Amino acid sequence: MHAEAGPAIALAKQGYFFVGGHYFETKDGRFMSDQMYVKYQIPLHHTHSYPLVLFSGGGQSGLNYEGTPDGREGWADYFLRQGYAVYVLDQPARARSPYHPDAVGPTLRTPTLWVERQFTAPERFNRWPQAKLHTQWPGAGVEGDPIFDQLMGQQFPTLASFPKQQELNRDAGSALLDRIGPAILLTHSQSSAFGWLIADARPQLVKGIVAIEPNGPPAHELVNQGAPDWFEDGPLTRPYGLTTPQLAYDPPLAPGEQLTFVRKDHAGTPDLALCWEQAEPARKLVNLEKIPVLLVQSEASYHAPYDYCTVRYLRQAGVENTTYIKLADLGIHGNGHMMMLEK
């Protein structure tokens, strides 16, 4: 999409590169896989010590931050205007990061109905209590609407194995910080799992995490099933609380030992899901404890019933410098999960 331009942004430098990756053999020769595409822009008036690294969520790419489906400027331009250097990436095996099925396995696709229900028109489906509050998608939010069609045009297949995605992004993201130095990670949805893993692997290089509606809730999946019961617990897919691959805890887990989770027996209000937390005494996320975290939640998203569980989990695990912002508390109403593309 052509973005509606604001005042010109003066850049000192811009370009792209790839990080991570390895060569592998096939019957057709040697190829590279698992590399991550990174676009960078450094403003002329560079006023912040640490750059922002922008991760997109499931089925998405760096396009989420480079503009909006209705032609407005994206978050990347906004942050450049604030004096931040910005690194926008595409996850390994997605979009501008080449995908090799014989190296990383099969993919899944995102159908239009799922995008409508979860992202652009949740108010039409009423799968969670807050869905009816959604007002801020810039269009009808359904197939055939030109703005929706632009969004569907940028949906990418995603690796079927989410554990594999987490490993690839942990490794490539760590390689990125090794190259550019200390940075602030801005993650969205699925990619928040990558942020926790990168911070665990490179705690000295992650100076903060902005988690936009992070992958969750902790430990067990949550199934939105509509009224009257609304929520049902799914399987344990995050055995390390926030991730599938291992995170470092203190006291450390012995070989083969698993974290123990307990389900809270009340949520406070009927529109919130019940949380899973560690059994006490809780182990601490030793490599994340000193990293400030900002968790941002919109009013109408499917995350609205459970993002508070992620905040509770982080604080229980010793990440006490966790700030929780609900946009509605700031007078910003009606947004859904794809807030960076909405009004």
Main sheet attributes: strand count, strand direction, barrel closure = 8 strands, mixed
Report the radius of gyration as a whole number of Å: 20 Å
Q: Choose one word for the global shape.
A: globular
Q: Which runs of at least 5 residues are low in confidence (pLDDT < 50)? A: none
User: What order do the SSEs take from the amino end to the carboxyl end, as H and E?
Assistant: EEEHHEHEHHEHEHEEEEEEHE
**In what order do the strands lie side by side in the largest sheet?**
1-2-4-3-7-8-13-14
Describe the structure.
With 343 residues, the chain is of the alpha/beta class. It has helices spanning 63-66, 75-81, 101-104, 112-120, 146-153, 162-180, 192-201, 307-316, and strands spanning 11-26, 29-43, 52-54, 86-90, 107-108, 158-159, 183-189, 206-214, 220-226, 230-236, 261-263, 276-278, 293-297, 322-326. The chain has an 8-stranded mixed β-sheet with strand order 1-2-4-3-7-8-13-14, with helices on both faces.
Brief digest:
The protein has helices at 63-66, 75-81, 101-104, 112-120, 146-153, 162-180, 192-201, 307-316, and strands at residues 11-26, 29-43, 52-54, 86-90, 107-108, 158-159, 183-189, 206-214, 220-226, 230-236, 261-263, 276-278, 293-297, 322-326. The protein has 343 residues and is α/β, with parallel strands linked by helices. Helix content is 21%, strand content 26%.
Give keywords.
343 residues; eight-stranded mixed beta sheet; two-stranded antiparallel ribbon; 8 helices; globular
What is the fold's blueprint, element by element?
Elements lengths: L10 E16 L2 E15 L8 E3 L8 H4 L8 H7 L4 E5 L10 H4 L2 E2 L3 H9 L25 H8 L4 E2 L2 H19 L2 E7 L2 H10 L4 E9 L5 E7 L3 E7 L24 E3 L12 E3 L14 E5 L9 H10 L5 E5 L17
Parallel strand pairs: 3-4, 3-7, 7-8, 8-13, 13-14
Antiparallel strand pairs: 1-2, 2-4, 5-6, 9-10, 11-12
Helix pairs in contact: 6-7
